[in-house]
């Protein structure tokens, strides 16, 4: 294909990614009719239909999906390369999007970024908090945050925290009104505070470990949240037993506001890691942020 066709390929990638001529046209700064003509011309030259259009939606055909999967990463590499050249001319700059849980954002990311950002005023950070195990490539995030055992092997992973120990806690008032659990099976009789995972549509099973014994317990209760901090607040208010990071609750336990529950069964997981696709490694802004977040034991 002649080189002048590259702009047509870029237009196709925008439409296939956005699944909308309206959004893609706005992104590219062209009219919808011009964009539609560009895509039709590309399909004519290739001799294959790339997009299925209806009055309500746009979706790639099988051939279109194949072409998109080949092209999109290459265009991202080109964009990253151009950004690197600009950074060499000026101070590091750019916007980095990070997907993380609220706990990771509050306990690890923000304390370090608060020191980092004043030194690099042209680097912008956008943090989206969720527990959905987001596909950072599909959702166009630059960095994701997960426990070490949850990072895909094709990603570059960098540890940002020590091993993470989970704990079960309840308020003294709750335990005064309910018998303290003596074994994991006793949790079935308790009002437990759940965390819903949007990726799976269900609640997170409590993973417990006592020496070589490991088990998952699915608990029930009146309250379900999609974040860590509302769960902590509910536990402090005496609403039930919560399963939370130990370092988040240990000060409350030391102050007598919470009590450990089934402490021999607290499990330990590989610590929090940031991860990103290898093709984004060239961004200077990304490298600086990774170094700022890197765990130093």
- Give the beta-strand count: 15
**For the terminal residues, how far apart are their CA atoms?**
53 Å
The SSE order reads HHHEEHEHEEEEHEEEEHEHEEEH
Beta-sheet strand percentage? 15-25%
Averaged pLDDT? 89
Low-confidence stretches at least 5 residues in length (pLDDT < 50)?
none
Notes on the structure:
With 297 residues, this protein is an alpha/beta fold. Helix content is 38%, strand content 23%. The chain has nine helices and 15 strands. The protein starts with 5 loop residues before the first helix and ends with a helix.
Key structural traits:
297 residues; alpha/beta; 6-stranded mixed sheet; 5-stranded mixed sheet; 9 helices; 38% helix; elongated
Brief overview:
With about 300 residues, the chain is of the alpha/beta class. It is built from nine helices and 15 strands. Strands 7, 8, 11, 12, 13 and 14 form a six-stranded mixed sheet that branches. A five-stranded mixed sheet has the order 4-3-5-15-6. It has a two-stranded antiparallel ribbon with strand order 1-2.
